[in-house]
Amino acid sequence: MPEATRPKPHLGHDNAWWWDMAAAGQLGIQKCKGCRSLRHPPRPMCGDCHSTEWEAVEASGRGTICSFTVLTHPQFAGFEYPLIIILVDLEEGTRLTSQLVDCSPEQVDFGLPVEMLVQEDADGFKIPVFKLADRR
Amino acid sequence: MPISLKNEAAVAGIGCTEFSKNSGRSELQLAAESIKAACDDAGISPSEIDGLISYTLDSTDECEVARAVGANHLTMFSRIHYGGGAAVGTIHHAAMAIATGQASTVVCWRAMNGRSGRRMGQGISGEITSSDLIHWSWYLPYGMLIPGSWIAMIANKYMHTYGVTREDLGRVAISQRNYSLRNPRAFGYGKPLRMEEYLNSKPIASPLCLYDFCQETDGGCAVLLTSAERARNLRQRPALVRGVCQASAREQEQMTSYYRSELISLPEMELAARQVYRQAGLGPGDIDAACLYDAFTSEIIMQLESFGFCKPGEGKDLVRDGGLDIDGRLPNNTHGGLLSEAYIHGMNNIAEAVRLVRGESTAQPAKRVEHVLVSSGVGVPTGALILGSD
Ligand SMILES: [Zn+2]
User: Which of B113, B124, B206, B260 to mutate to test the interface with A (most CBs of A within 10 A)?
Assistant: First the structure.
């Protein structure tokens, strides 16, 4: 029996492009063509200027930890525990939810700088995660 | 006299997308475009929308629509069941909302990829997804699969910012467990909880541990309403609805409103507070007891701030002073709540508020209870209710 893997995202018009960028090693942010503001998670209309025109820009992948939680129970197939989930404030100004890898639960803290890497699972699925930044 | 709907509401704008066999975009986008078009037709900004109504069959959540069109202050949203049977029902709800002052600018919508997605007559033809599935897809692949993981992220930031401790959460859990000791319906009946046991309980999603979580319960709970006039002639003392509202705010998500500039408050609950206090003509000083939604202990402390019982960051101090206990400023969840009575999605908290107004709680405070505040779920589009004695 093949080993269980993480649940995969449901893909549609409003998010498939982000996961396509991830598979290409990039972290995407949606940029409104009407008012040039960045937004995440993506959505098809800008809540400020109501434009439906947007483009995908590539983020630097650098940011800091805004908040975090260490998950220990219950444990689901496809994940290693303790599992550290973080909110990252990206340099560009948007925030995203991700996973902190190569880090012990004792090390994680508010405000630490992190950088993105795209992790490839055993089944070939690619997902952006973060590790503590080398230079702090 | 009941309020009549006659001549109270009118249609001021209509909007549609093109109709095709393959829209090439999400149902959320079709909803947003048609709503924007209706607003343009009426000559108003989508930011003025405060009510949203659709079909239970519609795949797009109200808070997703609201985020897309920039409707940041919803005070009323509803769904009508039975497929196409919902059509005029949406107008019915809108008219009721407008006639009763629940909302002033209500949009009814239905948006569907009925040929390229889910075909009514032929099952599924194309790609099936929804704004809801896409929403959860930002979390499930990362292992955020349980409510505790979604709430923990905000609880951790809030506690870090304001110096809230595990003991503070423990005080909430123990206060409610103490109430439940007297309630034969409650899970916690006859089962005291000590701080040491609380602090040593199993970690689940830091900073939350076992006793920060509500129960898992099989059960039902129902509440019947009629006119105040008729209620006075029935068997029980009436608990009058002083005010009631729904609330959804800027960057609202379902459980994961992580993308607001501030993570340490509950904007939707603050909107609910403003709306319900305004309707009732009351303020926090008039509230004698509460049944605040308590799926997690941290939610209670944050809501004390949302509803103005203290300033931001001071919820923990109110708890440390015994404010939630039976002789405190705001006796809260005197049945034990979702934490220690049962988890019936808050309907049992409404029932307890009725008992408090009747003076029939198993932990009835000694003081006179004239007004009881009840809230809906935390971290989701929510609402608030004030019940009062006759
Ligand atoms: Zn814009």
Answer: B206
